Here is the input.
Amino acid sequence: MFNLERWQEIFDTIRKNKLRTFLTGLSVASGIFILVILLAMGQGMQNGVSKEFENDAANRISVWAGVTSVEYKGLNPGRRIEMDNRDYEMAVKKNEDKLEYKSGVYSIWGGLTTYKNESGSYRIEGVRSDYQFLENETLVAGRYINQADLETFEKVAVIGNQVYLDLFKGKNALGEYVDITGIKFKVVGIYTDPGGEREETRIFIPLTTSQRVYNAGDKLRSLAFTLKDHKTYKEALAASEAFSAQLEADLKTAHSIAPNDLRAIHVNNSLENTKRFYDLNKMIRLFFWGVGICTIIAGIVGVSNIMLIIVKERTKEIGIRKAIGAQPWSIIGMILHESIFVTTMAGFIGLLLSLFLIQFAGPLIETSFISNPSVDFSVAITTVFILIIAGAVAGFFPAYRAANIKPIEALRDE
Here is the structure.
């Protein structure tokens, strides 16, 4: 029930102690403000990580070779390992029922590419037809590399959107020929990539063609795979880890590499990386919650101390109330009411300021692993409950003390 007299008492107390109330509210507002900003940054980190991992297939497994670092079977360390078509075929044959997409890759860094008077240096990659899905690319014109291109060593190319803009300036590119390191290739497709400009400065050609025209024989720079879907993330992660470990072991056996050599074969499992980043992000978010809650607790302590001072100042008044019949619960209600009001109002101010800052500054924050910090509705509701609980906790002990004041002692208080 609305009690006008109680509200008048609350506002009268605030008017008499403006500075004290302001400083008390400031501590609570600061706590909520810091908590919401930290949670927004945590969400921004999660957005950033998600954006980084959407560049390629979510469950991609990439393999590339390095240099041996351990002596094995009479072979000295320092051997450069080169993978070839046999490694790819072995992996596919052994895991055919598990694989969704697959491709070997032969890359040329800095391939000079020209079209009429325009030129640029781009990364050239020989790939198989599945590579479009391994890279999470979308065709905006034409087609991708197909099996016929691979079998007949066709000189065709799929160019990134940035390459298209650089060389063709928005004009038609399909069917045109570009000169790649002195060899003519026909443009059959244009793609876009979630990774943006960096990923769109590449040109894809058939793997078999790249091996032939660049005198690579059957050599490969890397292997790329994705596994078939599983019902749960846990099952997918377990299958991905098992596949990665088995593939690494098979390649080490095939190339006479010591099992404990960590530099000869490198396996990058995007599911494992995603799990690491999300686990780290979860820990960071928990840390942010901890820091924010501790800051709010500091504000609660301040409010509680102020309420104790108010109870002390109003001891005689409380004694008179009890002497004329006021019940303990009404005294507790009076103190809690004031405590919750001050805490909630200050907290809402801190909440609104933080949301205002996030709304305008959040979209401007774009770094490698932080993207558009934001706070969802559930977090805002959670902070509201925190405010109400904080106010109740802050006022409980002063209210309990006030309820236990004995009228005779209170009336003697000076």
User: Anything to note?
Assistant: Residues 270-313 form the longest helix (44 residues).
